[in-house]
Structures are given as structure tokens and as C-alpha cells.
Amino acid sequence: MKHGINQRKLGRMPAHRIALLRNLVSALLHHETIKTTLPKAKEAARMAEKIITLGKKGTNPSRSKAMAYLMPPHNSPSPIASSSSSSSSLLEAENDDEHFVPPKSLLPKLFDELSLRYAERPGGYTRIHKFGRRQGDNAPHAIVTLVDGPRDLKFEMLAREVGKSSLDLLEQKGGKLEEVGEGWEGLKPRTRLQVEKVLKYKSEGERREFKVKAKEFADYIQAEESAYGGVRSPNVSPDTPAYRRPGMNTPKTGRLLHAGERLSGVSTHTTGLGLARGALARTPRGRQNVDKSPRFWGQARLPEGVSAEVV
């Protein structure tokens, strides 16, 4: 009979392992996106599912269990409040976006916001994205996110995939992206299945947002092609196979781009790696209203109050 195989040991003693998982689960519920190693991600996602289930129950025993598991301790003040000697320094720390202020309690978010968000979902509140390997020990990295949240990576990346795949359908039928029905005709079976899974528990407003994101990315691909069409030198051979010939999703002039490659002047946030990094980063102080839309070659962001005619 085998014992002690219900969870990974993670190379730690029981007390250290329990404290690690408590910290990871609390960080996941607070930030809704964390990056860690793959074994830790799987264990943290498993425990987060149980904690969210306690939040959906909403009973006093479930509240007591959640209070005993989540960190920081809910009866103690914030670490910044206990270490700050003056109210001015505390106010400055709270207004600084680069300074992390931990919440005093995660119970309001768990029993109010998350319980309402997942009221109709029977399970599967977390999603794990593999994120390469860590430099140094080559440990596998992963990103754990809460589904249907504001930082859901799959919602954004799948919308871009739908926008890119819809260009082929538009080229064949000559229609508009708004005319593509809710069945998502023209998509690959696997992509259509993923769209149905992502939008299964979404509201009508979120479904419209998904289609808007897909259309914006489709427009971006077309604008990028027209903007860079004359910059790249044409070297497409006439012996190129049919599936490699220029079309809606491939450049009409110049060489074919490889996976992960970007053109000069194109922001890295358009790639999957840049998207994941941007979701994990915090906005620096004073840059909340900065226009982050991508710029094409030859364009630049002008300072506030300076017009193009002056430059």
C-alpha cells in the first residue's frame, strides 16, 4: 500500500510546503496571475480550486476554513502600516504603483467577487500556461491564471487567433467580420472548440468584447502588411509551394517571417511572449494613461502638447 502520494512534496518539509502553497494560493487570488515552476503551479491551482469552492458555499464553516488557510493573517494589520513611522510615508507607499501593498484580507474578494464570477461554473476556475524554462537550472516555468478574469491570457490570445483566422474567410466570401455568426464558421475545429469553451460562461457584453478584439487584431494585421509592404525586399521564389504563397496571412512582398520574429518598429506586446509579460507587469507610476497602441515604421509618439506640424 502506497502512502503520501496525494500531492507533490516539492523538495520541502511539510511545514515549509504548506506555507509555500498558502502563499502561492493567496497571491493567485489577489493578483489573479502568477508565474512559478510547473510543479508548484499544478499544486497551487489544485488548492485554489478548493478555496474558491469554499467561497461559493458561503457558510460559516467554509469561511473559517478559508480564513485559516489564506495569508496574510486576517487579524493583523498590513506590514507596511506596522513598519511605517509616519502617516505621510504610508500614504506615499499606497500611491506608488511600484510598491506592493498586500491586502489585509482576501475574504471579501473570495466570498463576494469570485463567488459571483464562478456562480454558474461547476469547476475549472484556474488555467495553467506553460512558459518555457527558467534560466539557470532549466526548471519548467508556468503561468497560473484565474479564468474569466480581467487578466485571462487565453481570452486575449484566442481573440487574436480568431481575428487572424477570419481573414481567410473574408478573402473567400468577401464579407465583413461582423457577419461571422456565433457558430464561428470558417475556423479550424480545434479553434472553434476553444472559443466555445472560453465563451461558455461569458455574458453578452463579454462576447461582444471578444469579437471587437478579434476585429481589431484583424485590422492590425492588414494595416501592418500595407505599412511594411514596400519596406521589405521581395525575394519570394516562384517555386514556392502553394501553401507558402502570399495570401491574407502571409506577406505579399519580402521573405516569410519565422515564429517569434517581429519587424523593426513593431512592439513586442503583439507576440505571445510580450502579451504574457505585459499581463504580469505593473504599470509604472504616472504612466496609467499612456497610449500603448503599436506604431509602424517611421512613426513615433509625440510628447503631450506637441503637434506633428511643429515637429
Q: How would you describe this protein?
A:
By secondary structure, the protein is mostly helical. It folds into 2 domains: about 100 residues, Ribosomal protein L17 (50s Ribosomal Protein L17, Chain: A, Alpha-Beta Complex); about 130 residues, no CATH class. It is about 45% helix and about 5% strand. It has 10 helices and 3 strands. A 3-stranded antiparallel beta sheet has the order 1-3-2, with helices on both faces. Helix 1 crosses helix 2, helix 2 packs across helix 6 and helix 7 packs across helix 8. It is globular, with a radius of gyration of 24 Å. The termini are far apart. About 15% of the residues are buried.
Task: State the gist of this model.
The chain is mainly α and about 300 residues long. The chain has helices spanning about 15-30, 40-55, 60-70, 80-85, 85-95, 105-115, 155-175, 190-200, 205-230, 270-280, and strands spanning about 35, 125-135, 140-145.
How would the blueprint of this fold be written?
Layout: H1 14-31, E1 33-37, H2 38-57, H3 60-69, H4 79-83, H5 87-95, H6 107-117, E2 126-133, E3 140-146, H7 153-173, H8 189-198, H9 204-228, H10 272-280
Antiparallel strand pairs: 1-3, 2-3
Helix pairs in contact: 1-2, 2-3, 2-6, 7-8, 7-9
* Percent of residues in beta strands: 5-15%
Mean pLDDT: 74
Number of structural domains: 2
Rg estimate, integer Å = 24 Å
- Unreliable segments (pLDDT under 50, ≥5 consecutive)? 75-86, 230-234
Helix content: 40-55%
Q: How would you spell out the order of helices and strands?
A: HEHHHHHEEHHHH
What's the end-to-end separation, in Å? 78 Å
Strand element count: 3
- What class, by secondary structure content? mainly alpha
GO biological process, one term: translation
GO molecular function: structural constituent of ribosome
Family: Belongs to the bacterial ribosomal protein bL17 family.
GO cellular component, one term: mitochondrial large ribosomal subunit
